[in-house]
Structures are given as structure tokens and as C-alpha cells.
Amino acid sequence: MGIMNWEKFNEANSVKCFDMLNEEEIENIINEDDLDLAMLDTQKAIGQDTGCICGVYFLGFDNSGEMWKNATPKERLEHLKKYLELEDSYKGLK
């Protein structure tokens, strides 16, 4: 388990996850072909140190790695938003 970034953690408990990402981070995430690397970058940006919720979201796909690799940046952005909505729901944010 990584070292918790408390500043990001506190921000994450009051701000929606997608809103925590800047444009450059979003571009880097949706242009990364490797799902694991893209989600590690996402989790680092939002102060999340486990992949549990991310795993729950992507578990719904037969081969999430291939799905991500073959998706367009627009499709990846939609998956990113849906995954981060799930992160928000676990924090109690609507």
C-alpha cells in the first residue's frame, strides 16, 4: 500500500473526483493505452491509494484491458467519468 497523500485525501472527501483532475492529467489518462497505468495515474491524482473501487467498475467488462486499449479517447473519457462517479458514490457525494 502506498503512502497516503493527506492533502489529496481531504480534498477527495469534499470535491468530486473528476473535478480534481486538471486538463493535462485527463489528457494523459485518456491517451494512455495501458488501463493499469491510466488508472494508477488517475488514483494518484485523486489521492486514492487502493484500486478496489476501480476494480469494481472495470470488473463489469470481459477483458477490460483490451476494451480500454481499443477504445477511442472519447470512449475512455466516458469510462473515466463513470469510474470516478463510482468513487464519488463511495464517498457519499452525489
Brief overview, please?
This protein is an all-alpha fold and 94 residues long. Helices cover 68% and strands 0% of the residues.
Name its key features.
94 residues, mainly alpha, 7 helices, 0% strand, globular
Q: State the share of residues found in helices, binned by percent.
A: 55-70%
- Domains, number: 1
Mean residue pLDDT: 87
Q: What's the tally of helices?
A: 7
The Rg value, from CA coordinates, equals: 13 Å
Question: What is the succession of H and E elements?
Answer: HHHHHHH
- Assign an overall shape: globular
Q: Please report the distance between the alpha carbons of the first and last residues.
A: 28 Å
Low-confidence stretches: none
- Strand content is under 5%
Alpha-beta classification: mainly alpha
Number of strands: 0
Sheet bearing the most strands, described? none
Chain oligomer state: single chain
Walk me through what this model shows.
The structure is a single chain. This protein has seven helices and no strands. It has 94 residues and is mostly helical. It has one domain. The longest helix is centred in the C-terminal third of the chain and has 19 residues, at 73-91. The protein is globular. The model has no long low-confidence stretch (mean pLDDT 87).
Outline the fold blueprint.
Blueprint: H1 6-12, H2 17-20, H3 23-30, H4 35-46, H5 52-58, H6 64-70, H7 73-91
Helix pairs in contact: 3-4, 5-7
